[in-house]
Specification:
Blueprint: E1 6-9, E2 14-17, H1 22-48, H2 56-100, H3 108-111, H4 130-170, E3 184-187, E4 190-193, E5 200-203, E6 206-209, E7 215-217, E8 222-228, E9 237-243, E10 246-251, E11 253-256, E12 263-264, E13 269-273, E14 283-290, E15 293-295, H5 307-317
Antiparallel strand pairs: 1-2, 3-6, 4-5, 6-14, 7-13, 8-9, 8-12, 9-10, 10-14, 11-13, 14-15
């Protein structure tokens, strides 16, 4: 209740009640409501700028922010798993694949190098979680770069593997006659007695005695460059260019099964044993050239002989006996 006010009237010697004017009452009400409104506004502004009260929009944004933080944490865990798998692949790449194919390992600093120069993450600065966002982005970009480096390395390995496969198929690595068709291995690479002059002469190939008509096989993939009898002493002979500097020669044949320019695979039938040219008896004279120089063919039979058979051939080939051509 509002207080009743009185004043002393000296004329009547009594107290009289003070009656407020109607305009003043309205003014007081206006001032009261105005003050209350301003106070409410000030309090609302204060509350909105503190953490005591959050608007529905702020609550929604806070939930969204926590959801993003959870997603970033999940992304970092997945990247950790990917980094572990990639690290294992990189280790095998450097210490197995590239080592086998004689390629230089990729340095660790090249695989995991960051990005220097200008600040790439300036647009991500100034937020509450800037460190989390920047670190995750940087980590993801380095992971992407490592994947690109590894992908290019595997492309290189695939090319080297194809070349290696071709090289291994091209090297003359098998005996040109089947063991069951051989009478004996008559003479090897080295100094031998000439069957016609009996003088000591260097023998540049290996002689395999076998019946006339015994099949002769290509010792490696290549192209027939010669199949004729226009080379002194060899009679009917075949030469196969295997690439990579290797050439094989098959001499004293009775007939051919290939012609000049023909592509052959290791094990293909190319001709038959004979005794044409400067030959004492039916046999195959077999030579291998590397970069134009004759080399010992006995070092190239790893593709067809057992260890025991190779040791037996090696023993015979080192004996200084008489050759057959």
């Amino acid at each position: 209740m509002s207080k009743v006010k009185y004043y002393y009237d000296p004329d009547t010697l009594s107290y009289r009640k003070i009656e407020p004017k109607k305009g003043r009452r309205i003014r007081n009400l206006i001032l009261f409501f105005t003050g209350s409104f301003l106070f409410a506004v000030v309090m609302l502004v204060i509350l909105l700028n503190t953490n005591f009260v959050n608007t529905p929009k702020e609550l929604s944004q806070e939930r969204e922010l926590k959801n993003y933080e959870f997603r970033f944490d999940l992304l970092n865990r997945k990247m950790a798993q990917m980094e572990a798998v990639l690290a294992n692949l990189e280790d095998r790449d450097n210490n197995l694949y590239r080592l086998y194919f004689e390629a230089n390992p990729i340095p660790e600093e090249q695989r995991k190098a960051g990005f220097g120069g200008v600040n790439r993450y300036k647009t991500l600065e100034g937020y509450n979680n800037s460190d989390l966002i920047i670190n995750t982005t940087r980590r993801l970009e380095i992971l992407q770069k490592r994947l690109v480096v590894q992908s290019r390395s595997l492309d290189e390995i695939a090319i080297l593997g194809a070349k290696k496969e071709k090289l291994l198929a091209s090297i003359p690595a098998i005996q040109p006659l089947n063991n069951e068709d051989l009478t004996r291995m008559a003479s090897g690479y080295g100094w031998r007695s000439d069957p016609f002059t009996k003088a000591r002469k260097f023998h540049y190939g290996m002689d395999f005695t076998a019946p006339r008509g015994t099949p002769i096989f290509a010792s490696g993939d290549g192209e027939v460059t010669r199949a004729d009898n226009r080379s002194a002493g060899y009679g009917k002979h075949i030469r196969i260019d295997h690439g990579y500097g290797y050439v094989s020669l098959y001499a004293h044949l009775s007939k051919y099964n290939v012609k000049r320019g023909q592509k052959v695979k290791r094990g293909d039938l190319i001709g038959f044993v004979g005794s044409t040219g400067r030959s004492e008896a039916p046999h195959l004279h077999y030579e291998i050239f590397k970069d134009g120089k004759r080399i010992n063919p006995i070092n190239f039979y790893y593709g067809s002989l057992t260890a025991k058979e190779f040791q037996s051939m090696l023993k015979i080939a080192t004996q200084e006996n008489q050759s057959l051509d």
